[in-house]
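Q: Hi! First time doing this. I have a protein sequence and I read that you can turn it into a structure. Is that right? Here it is:
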Amino acid sequence: MPADRRPLPQLLGEARRWFDQALPAALEAAGTTPLTPAQTQLFAALDDTGTTVAELARRTGVTRQSAHQTAHSLITAGLLEQTPDPTSGRRWLLRRTPTGDHAHHQAVHALATLESHLADRLGTETVTALRTALEQDWGEPPRG
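A: Yes, that's right. Below is the predicted 3D structure, encoded as structure tokens:
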């Protein structure tokens, strides 16, 4: 890689931070309580029918303890609720509350608006190509 080019992971991280900064600002402007990046990531990983803490930890790449703490903060905020898993007597599912559903829909709308702003700045073709590349199955990371 030429010395004047920054590593791709650094560029991806900066792009992620752009969204992590823009989304709370957009939600606050819409009158929704902004969430931390960790809360947003966990909230976005939920299934509509409910998701276990263990599954949320796997999907977001954090420890179960970290996912549990973040989920608890969202329960305290009234955005999530914990309900028994109908398929297992030992597991609990996290689901959005009606307030959480409203916040989720506002976040989806805000993200679409941010993506539109990004397309205005970078060009629709560039954003489409970026999305296409990121949606591909990259396979398992090389081992050495």
